[in-house]
Protein 1
Amino acid sequence: DQDLEGELGIDTVKQAEIMAEIRDRFRLPVDEDFVLADHPTLNHFTAYIVKMQGGAEPTTTVATPEAEPSVSPQDSDEQRVSHQAGTRRWQVEIEACPGIASPLNVSGTVVVSDDGWGIAEAFCQRMEARGLHAVRVGFESRIRDASRHDEGGRTVYRADPEQPEHLAWIADQLKGTTIGGMVHMAPLKLASEEWLEDAYPSSQIALAGHGWFGLLKELGGRMPADDAGFIASVTSMDGRHGNLGDRFNAVQCAASGITKSYAFERPDLRCRALDLHPEFVLDEAEAAKRIEDDVFGLAGEVEIGLDRDGRRWALVAFAEDVVDEAKPLTGKDTWLVSGGGSGVTAASIIGVAGASLNAGAHFELLGRSKLIEATSSWIDWSEDQLKEEKNALRGRLIEASESGKVTMVEWNDAWQKFTRSRDVYLTLDAIEQTGNHAAYHSVDVMDQIALQELGSSLGRPITGIVHGAGLEDSKLVADKGYEVFDRVVRVKVDGWRALLSAVVASGPHLPEFACCFTSVAGRFGNGGQTDYAAANSVLDAEMARLTATKECRAVAIGWTGWRDVGMATRGSIEAVFAAAGIETLAVEDGVSIFVAEALQGGKRRVLGCGSLGQMDTFSSFREAPLKLPAQMAATIADPSRFPFVDKVLSLDEGVHLMTQTTLSTADHPFLLDHAIEGVPYHPGVMALEMFAQSSLLLQPTTCLAGFEEVSFGLPVKLLKGPMTVRVDAVVERTEDDMTWVRCRLISDLANSKGEVFGEREHHEALVRLVEKREDLRPFLHREVEALPSIGTPPVGELIHPASFIYDRYFHGPRFQSHGGVLRGVGDAQQPGIDGLALMRHQLPATDQFAVEQDGEGVLLEALPMLIEAGFQNAGLVAMEVLGYSSLPVGIAWSTMLRVPEAEEVLRLRTLQTDSLEDGTTVHDVLVVGEDDAPVLALKGLRLKAMANVDDGQRFALER
Ligand SMILES: NC(=O)c1ccc[n+]([C@@H]2O[C@H](COP(=O)([O-])OP(=O)(O)OC[C@H]3O[C@@H](n4cnc5c(N)ncnc54)[C@H](OP(=O)(O)O)[C@@H]3O)[C@@H](O)[C@H]2O)c1
């Protein structure tokens, strides 16, 4: 019946792990109401197991959570939606994705393509350590022959990714070998190369795309469906699949598109498209380990970004509208539109022209179809007239054929030339009708020279690109030809480069606006569409990158299938969509999404879709982020304000607020200097700062007065990397100009599989707020009256420097806010110490937050380092008088009277007012400025003894 933490020394993290283990072993359901603090002893644990297994209610004082039916972590996330509510715009963003622990046991040979940084070889060695066999494939563009080499005992095949014979040769060499897994690291070769340095047509795309397609095509069948196997592709853009950075090569993404699609073709395999933070590339051993840990350790999402600090990211889509005012095009605009003569792109461009009435803007439309002049007069023809003409065409074809016959296919193909031409005339006419100009150029978008000539011949700078040209030819990898793969990829990828070179030839180095028509198949992958998804994934990432450079506003719109117009209306695609539960898009809805993107500030990656049925394997759609009052949204967006509020989870204005922050040593380096035995502990004073920030957000017309009823409970420890915590803030009462907000710091309890089964509460406090008024004197008067009566520490010389203190304390330079001991004060009943207190900018190291390392300022509300100086000073008293090291457990009351001047030298006094049997000591604290005026005070600071001080560190001050 001993207390697990207090008496047995089993800390809460370990307790949570034990409970997770118990849950597994006894097959207990996930229980969201489980509170660890309610189960302090093993007896409580036993009673809980009995209860959750349906046994008799024990007679102990165990809390009695209601058993919940088992829910998956997905179900418990209130933001996930399975959207059946029609088609709309979605913005693609990243979201933390811890993954689900699930070890993979593979046998056979692992094939790894070379990355050029040594990661592939390091990975091969790790595979061997697992008892697997490993070979490497070195892809090199434009080599004549494939070859086999021995590199330090490793078999390496060299091949040109664009030559199918080379890939077939590798497959032949590996004949009879069972493949356990394949990892395509060749895209990493592009991590240090720019797309603009690429050859034309692109050879980079072959490295990222063709080589991977070839390996899967030739060797995919050697991965037995009845055995565990995996495939993974690795890129290095920004560690977030391009959603953040502006300096990466988006061509790498072709590999991710293929992996995502292959995941649909081979659901029996574990498939992962990893994007490494660029710093990993320089550390091959670490990179290889992270890749292995991810692929062999975690199940779940395919597309994952790996951050340098251990975080994993998935891409999700938020229901979000564009909000800028519409800015119609003007006479200065010239847009180059591939695929703009017909199909959904034409419909979209007509929409933009219609929203820019009489603007005199120019649209240069591109397509391969040649115009047949006669069709210009067919614009107003009825269906019957067209039918008649089609029949007449059949007669002419029969007449011209030697056999005197014509097949349906020949007839339809011939007729399509006329209808395409008529479509183009219809588009030109519709645009002209809006008071804008349109011209059609019969040119292949991949013909870079022709496009450059077009650009320079216009005599006007091209201000916009819309890349709508695209081909689609669905076939599973095993059945898809290399030539089809190449064509589908290049129309989009090389086409984009050629369009850009037309812009350059027309004058500017980038257009002001760019839009690529991409697809949900690129975002999520789709069976049969490895090529299409590869190309669209590249364009998606490139549009995000261009926007991040701020030189061009670029958006990729990943469309679902459009109804009535375009490629999805052909063949049986509509039936396939219906069977898979994929909602299609009405033309008018698609057009209005495009018009809004183009004219109302759309950017980065967007989706235009509704329910995606089976395509949305990992429930990637989210409700719109919470709509916050404008002032609150602006305050949070300012990086210097409220650094402990990553996002607002819920808000009842003026009443309740729940905020969330992910604490990490990368974003919060102060944690490194508040670590015990290497484990960062989130300092109590920073928890108070978090409380202050959330309270001030909830009550924006107030300022911070101080705290009451502070209780520091379970410490927040970063045992396994970053940790997400929440602040729950509720207004408790208001009296005159004062408001009290009850705040709690909470985190989730999760088992080893990442399933959340309860929450734990760490710290709690009442935050005291005062209304901002011209005349704060009545408030200040009350506060001064309430200050502890412990006298004012006089100015003096240090008797012990700061190093004396930090010889005894664990705090590193970012947390050393004690400037040295001035003197001992008080008497045997009420001993105390005077010392110096340092503000944040006076610390030995001032970069407490990562943004401060980049020269940004961060404003904190609660003067946490002065409170910390109070803790440390009081701790010194306990250390001296009782011989204990102690930690703060509570504060009865505190006030903050003013923000000191930047250069002010602050003095502090703490006096021990009580010493309890259980080792708790109680202290009052006062910090004063150079004019002796009080800055901050604490009453009833309680410290709890944790350990005896070593004899060598004992000291005694004169009083
Ligand atoms: N329709 C949909 O449901 C849907 C869904 C998702 C994504 N998308 C994307 O939206 C875009 C337009 O699709 P769509 O349905 O309108 O397709 P579409 O009806 O097949 O039209 C494609 C257009 O691109 C042109 N084009 C194709 N290859 C070209 C080349 N090499 N050079 C110049 N022009 C070329 C075609 O004109 P020519 O034949 O005269 O060359 C045609 O105007 C595509 O990029 C597609 O990937 C469409």
Protein 2
Amino acid sequence: MESFFSQKRTWANGPYLHFIAVLDDPAYVAFTQAHHDLLADYGDRVGIVPAPWLHWTAQGVHHQLAEDQVERAVRAAREAARQAAPATVTMGPVWPGPSAVTVAMYPEEPLAEINALVRNAVSTVPGVQLREAGDRYWPHSTLAYYRSPSVHDADFNRRLRNIRPQRAEITIRRLLAVYMHQDLNLGYYTWTPIAEIPLGVTAADAAAPEVVCGAPESTATYRSAPPWGDPDAEYEIEVGRLAVQPPLSDEQVRYESFVSRALDDSTYFDDGEPPLPKWPDPVTTACERPVGDGACGSTRLRVRGSWTRPAVIICEHGHSWTDTVETMREVILAAEPAQ
Ligand SMILES: [Zn+2]
């Protein structure tokens, strides 16, 4: 019996670079939450991992790295992950361990392969020293960490095993390179994302050579339903160039309202037509992630989301950020395949 964040497990100089999969599948979240009533009885003696921080660690680096080493490690992992494939695994049952409640992940082989791929890639970066690999890679996800040695007794063990919720099947399609923080106050791990790493080459739904967002609305952008498929279906679309129309100036707003009033009232032209405003040029979206002394600057982007969820924009180097639902809709519309 022990508490998880013991002296030997506490990181001296974290946060550290880790490669994880975020396990936000609703079926797995529900599986973990089925144990929360029991865990809540133990108060602050356990650190229950909340839904946004559920993860599987594909590979961790347990020492500090310089920024350029992180960049190289992420690039190497991305390159290697092109050879990987998404992994479908079953989450559960839970294992009441000596310092944490972990969740089994089976089959282990595809996850062990991803671990080996990332491990080999990252170890090619000069100065990176990985912990020695065990005989057999142990894929798992942690549901709660013990913060006191007085949690894991026979009663706890029995009650935990009695819960037995339906196991969850999930598919892991991408890893996230993160700076992992050991949050000793919360009693679990949190992270700052660095880059996304797709497993395998993602097939774009369609090629969109250029997408201009925020342009004057056309009949297409008034659509309230997606052009094809289910509104919740997730798209991952390559965009040759993503251009955003800057917001209109006052002068342009006046011109817009002039045009609409003129359409309503044919005598309106008598007052004279206001001068044609200069429309602002669309601005090309470039990745602004700081790299070295400057910014990444990549304009080769992949956009992911659904008709109902915000766009996640990922540059060719895997840096990612979130944009609006409106942007996602415009990208989906622009990528609509010819019927
Ligand atoms: Zn970038």
